[in-house]
Specification:
Layout: H1 10-18, H2 23-31, H3 37-43, H4 49-61, E1 65-69, E2 76-80, H5 82-85, H6 88-101, H7 112-121, E3 132-140, E4 148-154, E5 157-161, E6 171-176, H8 177-184, H9 190-195, E7 200-202, H10 205-214, H11 230-239
Parallel strand pairs: 3-6
Antiparallel strand pairs: 1-2, 3-4, 4-5, 6-7
């Protein structure tokens, strides 16, 4: 195999597959509960559909993923096998290590589509009003595609929209993209950023007060930065008041 290391070491054999670009992220999306090709793609928005298909085929060949046909035969879903499920603690600990020790984010890392996908996975519908609630996010920043996105909760069915869904917006959130990502990751304090007007909310007062109850932060937000740099300084300044 051209991508192999030429070693019998089990770590080398595992790395042949898992260290290919995008592979661990695809496994992570499957662990998050994504099962449709389109769902996985939205969770890894910068991979091309053809490469995503190729990586899924490699994971199927390796026995990590299985393809499950639908009854109508028109499409299929993807599920982790027992071997794939065993990767859950490995992926979790790798993500925690990244939160603590990976490099600071650069401009090219600030992907608004991935942010909104992450937000829709962490929206607590049980604390939201009955019926339909639409949250619009308006991000500013250096990227050309920093603009508007929507989260729609319709009685517990949460969808992310890259185009205007056509519903009345109940709450609008405006922010610099980097600042919001830093708040989402726990580097900044979301409530403090809102109170200071750095993250601006537009809508009824009751809904503005409830946003931080609806929106759960990244599961990695409790883990403080340990690598020296800008993000650690921001977190340390907030922690010391």
């Amino acid at each position: 195999m051209t991508r192999g290391y030429g070693q019998y070491c089990p770590l080398a054999l595992a790395a042949e597959l898992l260290c290919e670009r995008w592979t661990v992220l695809i496994v992570s999306r499957l662990l998050d509960g994504c099962s449709q090709f389109s769902q996985i793609h939205r969770g890894v928005p910068r991979i091309s559909p053809s490469l995503l298909s190729q990586r899924l085929d490699q994971l199927i060949e390796a026995g990590i993923v299985k393809r499950v046909p639908k009854q109508n035969g028109a499409s299929c879903s993807y599920r982790l096998t027992p071997a794939g499920l065993e990767l859950a603690p490995i992926v979790e600990h790798l993500a925690i290590w990244g939160q603590r020790w990976a490099r600071d984010m650069i401009e090219d890392d600030l992907d608004p589509a991935f942010l909104v996908w992450s937000l829709h996975m962490r929206l607590d519908a049980s604390k939201m009003p009955l019926g339909r609630t639409v949250i619009e996010f308006d991000f500013s920043g250096p990227r050309w595609d920093c603009h508007r996105f929507w989260l729609v909760n319709d009685n517990g069915n949460i969808q992310m929209c890259l185009k205007d869904p056509g519903y009345e917006v109940n709450l609008k959130v405006q922010s610099d993209l980097r600042r919001f990502i830093e708040a989402w990751r726990g580097i900044r304090d979301l409530r403090i950023e809102i109170q200071a007007g750095k993250i601006r909310l537009h809508g009824p007062s009751a809904l503005k007060q409830q946003l931080t109850d609806w929106l759960l932060l990244s599961m990695l937000s409790p883990y403080p930065r340990k690598r020296a740099g800008r993000e650690k300084r921001i977190r340390s300044q907030i922690a010391t008041g």
